[in-house]
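Could you help me review a protein record that somebody else here produced? What it holds is a sequence and that sequence's fold in token form. I have pasted the whole thing underneath without changing anything:
=====
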Amino acid sequence: MYIRELFYKKKVVMSAEVFPPKKNGMLEGVIRALKEIKPLDPDYVSITYGASGSGGMTTADVASVVIDAFDMTAVAHMTAVNMTKDLLEERLGMLERKGVKSILTLRGDIVEDSRFYDFRHANELAKYIHDKYPSFELLGACYPEGHPEAASLDADLDMIKLKTECGVSHLVTQLFFDNATFYGFAEKAEKKGIKASVSAGIMPITSVQQVERIVSMCGVQIPTAFAKMCATYQGEDLYKAGIDYACGQIRDLIDNGVRGIHLYTMNKGDVAREVFTRFEGDRK
């Protein structure tokens, strides 16, 4: 089943994201996470792509495990960075053989060895796949606070609309800690005529190191309540408080009619379990 179809069938679509290992063949960590995620019955599992466009093989390997070993729906990430048409054709053929039907198209992170060849933006990648391989369902990313490189949120929304015109039918947001930001984004997206279904990306913060890394990488806004939580708790107390904060976000989102929740698990099966089990009744 395609992801977009889930929104016609489910009250709330809840999904989980995992990341593949940096080295080929070393799947033990992600498999442990998947073993804990499987009983939670996520509507789909997305698998990230390595920085600078590396790791396509391991993304496909993990997607294959998700489908064949755990009988779950897989979404494979694909990036424009360091991607040529020939390499894309190879990767798409591999994903087809492994039974992947849905691809999350991204530009990809810019690091030292990043290069652009045949594709510079996610919409270009999406259009190529949509035109040549229409059987693939395409997903895209969006930033409730606006992409860090966009001139404005309004300009970023124009790019998101372009993605949908290039074949993207479902959007997954970057993480955020203030639901008001998401609601404002959703309202502006609707006014722009963006009709794709949207899943709100939520990441439970369970350690101080995680907070520091996320803030430095994503530049996400830190609301007062979240900052106070991080300053007040540490260790096991922060683990519990972080999960409670994320669940509070999810409860508010669902109560306000948001029908897609995407959990950034960071390969922590225990965190996924703590969150998913609190919303079993909402998904039926």
